[in-house]
Amino acid sequence: MVKPDGVQRGLVGEVISRFEKKGFKLTGLKLFQCPRDLAEEHYKDLKAKPFFPKLIKYITSGPVVCMAWEGVGIVASARKLIGATDPLQAEPGTIRGDLAVQTGRNVVHGSDSPENGKREIGKAFDALLRYYHLLNLSDMIT
Ligand code: RTP
Hints:
Cofactor: Mg(2+)
Keywords: ATP-binding, Kinase, Nucleotide-binding, Transferase
Number of domains: 1
Domain Nucleoside diphosphate kinase-like: 1-142
CATH class: Alpha Beta
Distance between the termini: 23 Å
Number of strands: 2
Shape: globular
Strand content: 5-15%
CATH topology: Alpha-Beta Plaits
Helix content: 40-55%
Number of helices: 7
Radius of gyration: 15 Å
Bound molecules: ribavirin triphosphate
Largest sheet: 2 strands, antiparallel
CATH superfamily: Nucleoside diphosphate kinase-like domain
Pfam family, one: NDK
Order of helices and strands: HHEHHEHHH
Strand order of the largest sheet: 1-2
InterPro entries: NDK-like_dom (IPR034907), NDK-like_dom_sf (IPR036850), Nucleoside_diP_kinase (IPR001564), Nucleoside_diP_kinase_AS (IPR023005)
């Protein structure tokens, strides 16, 4: 997922390009505003952390781009392409190492296991469908 700072800074193409150049296949792509309940569910393991309120405010502050990627070893490789959580610790050549300086504005999120990847893709794309359904626009996307 490209986080709000990455979308706002026009880095969506750059992130997609790095994954494509590595050899992975983009199989899903959605721009959407992450609802607060989904953000809280997504980061529920960090609920006790002092930065949790700031994190939720940040993730819901603007549109994000959710992506589904396929390929051999995609989860582990994506973590390497993305780099360490703190961009100042991330290696040059990684997305965070090249494009960010703050942990709280670190451009991208990557799933940490295939199971979580499936769950997160399901949640993000399902939330979008529910949102359209609420607006009675579901016929536009079916
Ligand atoms: P992500 O889930 O976003 O891919 O990041 P991650 O696995 O590299 O890091 P994680 O520990 O799961 O933290 C999730 C996100 O919380 C924000 N964060 N802020 N000290 C802080 O202010 C702090 N620590 C973490 C970051 O946006 C991090 O990506």
